[in-house]
Amino acid sequence: DPEVDADPNELDPNFEHVTEFDVDEDGVEVGYDPIFGRSNPIDSRTKVTSMESYFIDDATRDDAIVTPTFPENDIEIEYNTKIKNFRKSLKIIDTYKDPFLGDDYDVPRNVAKWHGYPEQTKYPSKPFENNRFTKPEDKTDFTKLDPYRAKKTAVQLARSKNNEWLPKGKSEAFHRNQTDIFRKLNLLQGSLRAGEVDEEIVKRIQPALNVLGSVADLLSMHNEGKVFRFHYHGLIKHREGMAAWTETLIRDCGVECTGVVFETGWRKRDPYYDGGDHWFGPY
Fold first, then answer.
1. What pTM did the predictor assign?
2. Quick one: pLDDT band at residue 259, thresholds 50, 70, 90?
3. For labeling, which of 27, 49, 86, 153 is most exposed (least CB within 10 Å)?
């Protein structure tokens, strides 16, 4: 538990670790990539201090179970100590070549073990509302809802155009502004408004309308009865294919057709196919 236990990834102060890294002629750290970051095996967890076996290390050595390297009072003991101290003062990193990395990288033998990042058991606490519009007394209290209802409510609020993230009336004003252009310029394209139709052509394409059934309703005809507008009720993912097929059905009735437009209004997706939830908001 990171809140109670000590961090196992902290470096041991008894050892000296690498603080400066090799750079290339451009001053960039060797093995550094701007996208993937560092790749040099020699990093800040590499130990510079030479590692001794616990049998002979001064901190763990037990002379009772280890055969002395030199006899007592041997003149070589002092000389050997000087050599060892000089070798440590060189601060040479003990490395080897890894066949999988090739000859470009030296892999250190002695590194501080990395235990990984602490496991995240919960998300940090954050306020339920992060906006300027909701008053504290009007906010939705998710703590009083069970997990299922809390998720449903969150999805509804996130998908709705008029929720507690927006001031009252903001959504209605947005939709009114989007649809005013159809009324001001008397446009049909892009809306679900019905227009003029030629009853004679309607009778001729009746077999095609019977095939379409309740999937599409004829709204208007344009370009001398050669372009047909329909209110499409089917799946959005089939919209283009159904429009192309409808052109073929109309031509099979002996009527010239240069285009078919399927209007869907504010419907942009298939609610019953989005995660199995039919609630899709006031589009």
1. 0.41
2. very high
3. 27
